[in-house]
Amino acid sequence: MKRILFCFIFFVLYSYTTLLYAQNDNFNNKNKEFFGLVWNDTKKAKVVLKWMEEYALEKNQSELLSKYFNANATFFYSKSNYNEAISNYLKSYEKAKEWGDKWQQGVVLNNLGGCLFQMQEYEKAKEYYEIAYQLFIELKDIDWQTNVLFNLAAINYDLENFLIAEQQFLKLEKSYLKNNQLDYASYCNRNLGTIYVETNRIDDAIKQLELSLARGSQTDTKEDLALTYQKMGHALAKKNKNQDALHYLHKSLKITKENFNNKWTLINYELFAQTYKQSNIADSAYFYYEKCLAYKDTVFNETKQTEFATLETQFKTKLKEEKIAQQKTIINQKNKIIYGLIFFIVLIILLLLLFIITRLKLLKSRKKLQESLDEKETLLREIHHRVKNNLQVVSSLLNMHVRKVTDPDSKKILEEGSDRLMAMSLIHKNLYPHSNLNTISLDDYLFKLSHQLFDNYQLNYSKVNLITELDKIDVDIDKLIPIGLIVNELISNAMKHAFNEESDAQISIKLKYAKDNEIELEVADNGQGIANNWREKESDSIGMKLITIFSEKLKSKLSIQNDNGTRIKLLIPTL
């Protein structure tokens, strides 16, 4: 029983653990699906993110919450909602620390630095990037080291730490070329070209910008190309190649105006004005100076709108935090309900185990009882077998005396006694191999009894025809013994008294169910018929006395007819 209980508990714990891991795997698959959608299909990404939120808050596990907050922050980042993104990245980082996963911490810190970089908070961004870089060095993750170093180079470039940025971009260029990542190498070339323009290394700048255009021609975005064209125009203007400079500036301006990038359009206008002034084309220089003034107002308004959006985001963030606090309260309430449910389930399991133990004890008790019953039935079957043997011995002794007796009357009495013993012996013989000692097949017994009587009297089967029409009927032994003795007397009387030697004899035995829950037994012959005054002679006939006595014991209805022979019918109640 202890082994069964242990196996049950082990099965429950194993099933729970397997289910838990399977559910967490499903969460991780949803996380991957989200990052595949967030930049391409916002609608589907929001559906997946909603599922992740509900699941993570329900399970309240640091690992799941860290991944959910990171995904949620990335969603806001994709919408340029950097303040909301930062709030979620910080939550993700705290959960990653609770979880103890340094790789997840490094990824989140890198993402956090990206938000601050977009908000031009370069020093803070650089701080997060450097922490992430050290984590990936500790983890020996080369790919993420390269990604973070790329971001650090961009930060140093924007902070005008040109010497540090140059060394970092040169290192990154070699790494990208080694891995045949020409698009990233193109980015390094563009930034190196920009650094060389700012430090007046014009020839080196032009060379790097040409490499950027060559390597990124198939992969650069329009914004990347606009920036490269702009820097190339700036470098050529410094080289006094004004026509070539204007050519690249026009290409850059076309892209920035098509994409409504007012900030870069303003820089292009400023470069146009400087280049035309350098070329002594005053009208064009004046035209672009006016453009600059107009776009400065536009850029100023955009900045104000950005500040307003930041304040609005902060307000929404506060509301979001309050909502999360409410959700946590709801989760705590749900947890209490779950704990109560778990207690109830455990109680049910204990009651179930108690029931199983009680059931097993009951089955064990029933098994012992059945074994005892089987033993008794075996003993009873053996008793029937021995009774059968004893009756056969007595019958054989009587037969021996029959052969020695010369007086006809005595011989007749002994033969009749032997037949009756044989009829009773046959009952016990049928009971011995029978699986059910309570009932026995009456039809099978009558069939065997009638044929055995024919064998005993050694009748000529060609002259005496035995007909049996026996339906399948089972009776208990209390009914079987009197019925067997009655049939024995009827067949014996028919074979002894009904026929002469010339007659074409026929004896029939019929057994079937009658109406009103009765068994109908009929024994008939086509012999001389029974005397009409048989009841008066009954006192002189032991056989007829037995038939009458046993029919009364069976509470049956006895009828005797003389119709081309003798027809004796018994209606025996089954109840």
UniProtKB/TrEMBL annotation:
Gene3D superfamilies: Histidine kinase-like ATPase, C-terminal domain (3.30.565.10), PAS domain (3.30.450.20), Tetratricopeptide repeat domain (1.25.40.10)
Pfam families noted in UniProt: HATPase_c, HisKA_2, TPR_12
Record domain Histidine kinase/HSP90-like ATPase: where: 478-575
Catalytic reaction equation(s): ATP + protein L-histidine = ADP + protein N-phospho-L-histidine
Enzyme class: transferase
UniProt cross-references to SMART domains, sorted A to Z: HATPase_c (SM00387), TPR (SM00028)
Regions crossing the membrane: 337-358
Keywords: ATP-binding, Kinase, Membrane, Nucleotide-binding, Phosphoprotein, TPR repeat, Transferase, Transmembrane, Transmembrane helix
Residue ranges of TPR repeats: 226-259
EC number: 2.7.13.3
InterPro entries assigned to the protein according to its UniProt record, in alphabetical order: HATPase_C_sf, HATPase_dom, Sig_transdc_His_kin_sub2_dim/P, TPR-like_helical_dom_sf, TPR_rpt
Name of the protein: histidine kinase
